[in-house]
Amino acid sequence: VQLQASGGGLVQAGGSLRLSCAASGRDFNSYVMGWFRQAPGKEREFVGAISRGGGSTNYEDSVKGRFTISRDNAKNTVYLQMRPLKPEDTAVYYCAAGTAPSLYRDSIYYDYWGQGTLVTVSS
Prior knowledge:
Layout: E1 2-6, E2 9-12, E3 17-24, E4 32-38, E5 45-50, E6 57-59, E7 67-72, E8 77-82, E9 91-98, E10 112-113, E11 117-122
Parallel strand pairs: 2-11
Antiparallel strand pairs: 1-3, 3-8, 4-5, 4-9, 5-6, 7-8, 9-10, 9-11
């Protein structure tokens, strides 16, 4: 599967963005989908994940209550709604697809990665 992330940009603190990740290929609904981010000078970190059917989600603590992951299997797309954004959310955001059945936080469980989209939050 190939993944294409989009929707990043520059936004003021307190604002919102919605990232999209479009998947090509077959059987999109057989993949757990995850979002990760990498800030300048830092390691890549887990943001959240959503189950194959969309009924379960898992979030990193710092984004709980602010970020929401959803998916539309008919459109082969997963979304990351972010609101309100903070300067510390500035990073390149990556979507990933995994065949493992659980909503793992470790990137090793994700087999396919998108190219990343930059989110910059100004204070």
